[in-house]
Amino acid sequence: MDRSLYIAMSGAKQTLLAQTANANNLANTQTSGFKSDLEQFRSMPVFGAGYPTRVYAMTEKPGTDLSAGAMQTTGAELDVAIKGEGYFAVQGPDGKEAYTRAGDLRVTPEGLLQTGGGLQIIGQNGPIAIPPSEKLTIGGDGTISIIPLGTGNATTLVEVDRIKLVKPDAALVEKRADGLLHLKGDQAIEASADVSVVQGALESSNVNAISAMVEMIELAKNFELQTKVMKNVDENSGVSARLMQMG
After folding, report:
1. What pLDDT, on a 0 to 100 scale, did the predictor assign at position 167?
2. How do strand 133-138 and strand 105-107 relate by DSSP bridges?
3. Domain ranges of the chain
4. Pairing between strand 80-83 and 87-91?
């Protein structure tokens, strides 16, 4: 009895963990540049003294779907999207370099260029600072040019910095709990001249809302089946105990 109960219990637990990952994907269907997480189940034997007579279910996170989302035109000067492969380099919450496709940029009152999530955009020599300006232009190679505020000349563009654009091998990056991509081993990567951006556009999330909803229903049904198995095992255990008492 305990074998069936253990299998069903571990399956129900891992189904809840998979549901958590799927719910996070579904919650980020409108998040710019979001990459959906992948999950899968597999059975694992329990090793110990004697033969492995027990198994348990385990969810794995085999990776992240790095496919590009749809490009949406916004017309905003601080919205940028990457064409094809590549990432923006940002300063992660831990202070280390990380990578994202989210191009919903903003300039803080202090003049710092950040993503919509408050991460510092990295340029050629560290975080980018933007002087007060009348107009800001971001070129296809990530070069940021401005018309300085109060110059009286609306045609003179001054180059401020260039956004660090990178193109790492997909096998060398991993998505972590902060939602950002990191190079395995916490290394930094050199800027790539092969990455280009489009100003006035944003890349949407690559999560398919319909598929995520279908998966949520499937996982809920799976959890229900696991709990039914646990209930049946408990009932059978009670019947077995009464038969033993009769003997």
Report:
1. 94
2. unpaired
3. 2-66+207-246, 71-203
4. unpaired
